[in-house]
Amino acid sequence: MEYISSDTNVWIDFSIIQKLNLPFKLPYTYIMNEDAISDELLSPPGLGERLKAYGLKAVEISDLEFDLAQSYGEKYLKLSIYDRIALSIAKNRNITLLTGDGSLRKACKKEGVPVIGTLGIIDQLLTLEMISNQEYKDCLQRLQQQNGGTIRLPSAEIDSRLEKCFKEE
């Protein structure tokens, strides 16, 4: 099973559209720093515990990952400490990072760390036939309806996927 280092915003996206279970259908083990789970996954209440029940694994960071996260603070000023920790875990363990954060995605690109976000997860679920076309479309429509608030995804990307869905009907 492939490991993926996790940031918080994708989980919030899936929580808002009430599809928190979906990413756990994929053949991945999502990991997240244990302090980030308790400090960042606060809303809605119980989100961190629900994610752990689905399979999110809390991990401690190594000394090397701590030092790497500290060095990223000087290099990537817009990243929070937990963003830097998620990046350092992905970089050190040579795994993908799950995030939708624009600044963190840019840092991943500079560090050579593969990245996937909310739309990439939904696309994989459809491609691997783990969700139906209708559920895929429903997820996209819910994301589109909530976009611009807590969810901040590229509207054009959602629209192009939805347009393709409607053409295939």
Describe the structure.
This protein has 169 residues and is an alpha/beta fold. It has 2 domains: 117 residues, 5'-nuclease (Rossmann fold); 38 residues, no CATH class. Helix content is 57%, strand content 11%. The protein has 9 helices and 5 strands, in the order βαβααβααβαβααα. The protein is globular, with a radius of gyration of 16 Å. It starts with a strand and ends with a helix.
Task: Summarize the SSE layout with pairings.
Blueprint: E1 2-6, H1 9-16, E2 28-33, H2 34-40, H3 47-54, E3 57-59, H4 63-75, H5 81-93, E4 96-98, H6 102-111, E5 115-116, H7 118-127, H8 133-146, H9 155-168
Parallel strand pairs: 1-2, 1-4, 2-3, 4-5
Helix pairs in contact: 4-5, 5-6, 7-8, 8-9
In short:
This protein is α/β, with parallel strands linked by helices and 169 residues long. The mean pLDDT is 90.
